[in-house]
Specification:
Distance between the termini of chain A: 71 Å
Number of domains of chain B: 1
Number of strands of chain A: 22
Structural class of chain A: alpha/beta
Radius of gyration of chain A: 25 Å
CATH superfamily of the largest domain in chain A: HUPs
Helix content of chain A: 25-40%
Largest interface: A-B, 120 and 105 residues
CATH class of the largest domain in chain A: Alpha Beta
Strand order of the largest sheet of chain B: 11-10-9-12-8-1-6-7-13
Largest sheet of chain A: 7 strands, parallel
CATH topology of chain B: Rossmann fold
Bound molecules: flavin-adenine dinucleotide
CATH superfamily of chain B: HUPs
Structural class of chain B: alpha/beta
Strand content of chain B: 25-35%
Strand order of the largest sheet of chain A: 11-15-10-5-8-9-16
Strand content of chain A: 25-35%
CATH architecture of chain B: 3-Layer(aba) Sandwich
Number of helices of chain A: 11
Number of helices of chain B: 6
CATH topology of the largest domain in chain A: Rossmann fold
Oligomer: heterodimer
């Protein structure tokens, strides 16, 4: 048995704090058999088969113990981690520099690269190492100078006609070969469709671990390890992930979570044109075509401002006042599942658990009640405005700014007010 | 000609029951039921639809999970799968996505050994608990098969190749892959059907093999917590979002003015 965890019965008060803290819900509260001298009615039972040994329950129980006057209770959970030697542990001192993957999407360099460069500069600063960017595609060398101006010390250019469009297996082979040769210490990718698709494949091919969708990243100066923290359960639980014995430590980083590093003209760096032997690669996937989204719609996952509507919008035409406000704010239009399921707006606008996750600077919700599955996709927005007839609905309660009112009156009034102040 | 599809499913907390404790801001888990990860329902449905297109196709379902995950395997059979396989052992517990995809890879190899070649593996886009989306591409890496994630439509499929649409932020990519291959599907791909009576009967009767690390010939250094390169070192509740300011005003216009004032103060406009 590699690990074990158990509850010391006499110390458990049945307070449920551990069950609430558990990220994998493996703790049940059961009724106690009555015993002399024990007033508590419930007892925590941990399902070891489900436990991920993250220590969250131990921490809350111990914290309660520190606060409690009664020294006979709390400190009730004991965890024994019997560390099994993982295979292929590496000599971590051989790995240097913080890398970012600069995403090309249909011929365009995605500005998330500049967010990653800013973050990488901070991390590399703590480590006293350099920042490198990797760009993969066809005719992508032209972006090297731009990446240097935004903070890269080195740019690896992997350029080949077969890499014109993103294909998982080709990009994986290209990036993994470079990783195995150059041995980066950390590697950050955007948590976009492309980054999330092939990040995991690269990690496994390069035999290392990867954190998904991190929003807080830091280096522990003592261990030089990357602490990557990610929200889960719709931002209701934060988990910090470590990769102790494998390199590079990898993470996908949520777009918009970090500011873009500024452009510094005249900044210098090294450009490395990576030799490509594409004939060695397995090529079992063929890119057929790209169909661009019609219209000049903004991509909601990259939008800084989103105006979203729910069941309260009532119809397809009901989205008009939202579109008007989004237009005035240069934002994108989002929706709850209720509005998507009703057929008022296409699925790609859906925000939430089964839709897109967004983190704009400003999220304006109209006619959305704020069910947990919706919050899962937007609760880490910086500023939330909610307009709802019902002042008691969950979204109005959690919003930074809430308005009680009819969206069909309030939204046009906001749009008019903004246009007025802009002198339109 | 029929093909053999393996759908990977995970049993996760039933999302419709997730609630936030208004006082502490933490998740309420009391009485939380478990169900098939919502995205995996689309995976099962797509496999069943391919079976309808290509008669003679077999749909297998596999999960790595605790004993109670068997319910979800039976549910998958009720929804149209032909057979199910359960990877279950204490030694699998605590696996990260690296070790999870390794274990599923070994399970799929075992299915191939017992039931013949597999042409297509279907995963969901992500789960509603771990939520990484890593496992599908990870299985492909282990199998050394091509893969495509975020698939929103299977345009064509036969026993040699598959043509799919991939949902991108700025539109749709169309790609063709040689089989065997792995895809991960998004919600837009279909509308899952509910289980019929025939399916429910089959689910009740099905004999579901349980395989542990020895059965699938897994390297014990590559499974479970010990075989995982990553660990969850701590998890904590973020400071609850402070309930904000209610914008007051007699009319919609007054409220709009007050709101725009605030937004300007915050430099959002
Ligand atoms: C597995 C699963 C996954 C899910 N995934 C998602 C997801 O990804 N995204 C998502 O959004 N949901 C998701 N849901 C659905 C979710 O549970 C809710 O049903 C949904 O979010 C409700 O949408 P809503 O807030 O628009 O509608 P409702 O909850 O019906 O709220 C409508 C609101 O509009 C207000 N209103 C009505 N008229 C007006 C008006 N004229 N002016 C102002 N306010 C008005 C009402 O007061 C009410 O608060 C999922 C559910 C499940 C079970
Ligand atoms: C809060 C939290 C954060 C975590 N963060 C990370 C992290 O950053 N990196 C990391 O490596 N691990 C992480 N883990 C561990 C991870 O959740 C587990 O490895 C889990 O077994 C698989 O990952 P997932 O749930 O994210 O699945 P996903 O990768 O999101 O699942 C995609 C698809 O793979 C298939 N699938 C997934 N799991 C199974 C299964 N058990 N059986 C059959 N099919 C399956 C399904 O088709 C599913 O739709 C985290 C766990 C928790 C609780």
């Amino acid at each position: 048995m590699p690990n074990s965890i158990f509850v010391t019965k006499n110390r458990c008060t049945g307070c449920t704090s551990c069950a609430k803290a558990c990220p994998v819900s493996c703790i049940d509260m059961v009724d106690r058999v009555k015993e002399a001298g024990i007033p508590w009615r419930k007892l925590a039972i941990i399902d070891e088969a489900k436990c991920i040994f993250c220590n969250a329950c131990v921490e809350v129980c111990d914290k309660l113990g520190e606060k409690s006057k009664n020294k006979d209770v709390f400190h009730a959970i004991t965890m024994v981690k019997e560390k099994v030697e993982g295979k292929n542990n590496v000599d971590v001192t051989l790995y240097k520099n913080v890398w970012i993957y600069a995403e090309m999407r249909h011929g365009t360099l995605i500005p998330t690269a500049f967010e990653l460069l800013g973050l990488a500069r901070t991390l590399a600063g703590t480590l006293g190492e350099q920042v490198a960017a990797v760009v993969i595609g066809k005719d992508v060398g032209q972006h090297a100078q731009e990446l240097i101006a935004h903070g890269a010390d080195i740019v690896y250019v992997i350029d080949h006609p077969s890499l014109e469009n993103f294909v998982d297996e080709l990009y994986t082979q290209a990036l993994t070969e470079l990783i195995l040769k150059e041995r980066p210490n950390k590697l950050l990718l955007p948590a976009s469709t492309i980054g999330r698709s092939f990040g995991s494949r690269v990690a496994i091919t390069a035999n290392t671990g990867i954190t998904a969708d991190a929003t807080e990243l830091a280096i522990d100066p003592a261990t030089r390890m990357l602490h990557a923290t990610r929200p889960s359960f719709g931002g209701n639980l934060m988990a910090t992930i470590l990769c102790e014995k494998h390199r590079p430590e990898m993470a996908t980083v949520r777009p918009m979570a970090f500011p873009r590093s500024p452009r510094v003209d005249g900044r210098t760096g090294k450009v490395v044109n990576v030799a490509v032997e594409a004939s060695k690669w397995k090529q079992r996937t063929r890119f057929v075509r790209f169909e661009a989204e019609k219209g000049q719609e903004q991509d909601i996952t990259a939008a800084e401002i989103i105006v979203a509507g729910g069941r309260g919008v009532g119809s397809e035409t009901g989205f008009k006042p939202l579109e008007d406000l989004a237009h005035a704010l240069k934002g994108a239009v989002g929706a709850s599942r209720a509005a998507v399921d009703a057929g008022w707006i296409p699925y790609r606008h859906q925000i939430g658990l089964t839709g897109r996750t967004v983190r704009p600077k400003l999220y304006v919700a109209a006619g959305i009640s704020g069910q947990i599955q919706h919050l899962a996709g937007m609760s880490s927005s910086e500023v939330i405005v909610s307009i709802n007839k019902d002042p008691e609905c969950a979204l109005n309660k959690m919003a930074t700014l809430s308005i009680e009112g009819d969206m069909f009156e309030v939204l046009p009034a906001i749009t008019a007010e903004i246009n007025k102040r802009r002198g339109h | 000609m029929g093909i053999h599809i393996v759908v990977c499913i995970k049993q996760t907390p039933a999302t419709s029951n997730i609630q936030i404790d208004p006082v502490t801001g933490t998740l309420k888990r009391e009485g939380m039921a478990a169900a098939i990860n919502p995205f995996d329902e689309y995976g099962i449905e797509e496999a069943v639809r391919i079976k309808e297109r290509l008669p003679g196709t077999t749909v297998s379902v596999i999960t790595m999970g605790p004993p109670q995950a068997e319910e979800s395997l039976r549910e998958s059979i009720a929804r149209g799968a032909d057979q199910a396989f359960h990877l279950t052992s204490r030694a699998f517990a605590g696996a990260d996505t690296w070790a999870t995809s390794y274990t599923l890879f070994k399970g799929i190899q075992k299915i191939m050994k017992e039931k013949g070649p597999v042409h297509l593996v279907i995963c969901g886009k992500q789960t509603n608990d771990g939520d990484t989306g890593h496992v599908g591409p990870g299985i492909a890496a282990w199998l050394d098969w091509p893969n495509i994630a975020y698939v929103k439509k299977v345009e064509a499929i036969d026993d040699k190749k598959i043509v799919v649409q991939r949902m991108m932020e700025d539109g749709v990519d169309v790609l063709e892959m040689d089989l065997p291959a792995v895809i991960a599907v998004v919600k837009e791909i279909n509308e899952p059907r509910v289980a019929g009576l025939k399916g429910k009967m089959a689910a009740k009767k099905a004999v579901i093999p349980k395989w542990n690390e020895v059965d699938i010939e897994a390297d014990t250094k590559s499974i479970g917590l010990g075989g995982s390169p990553t660990v969850v070192s701590k998890s904590f509740n973020p400071p609850p979002r402070k309930g904000g300011v209610k914008i007051e005003g007699a009319t919609a216009q007054d409220k709009a003015k007050a709101l725009v004032d605030k937004l300007q103060e915050m430099k959002l406009i």
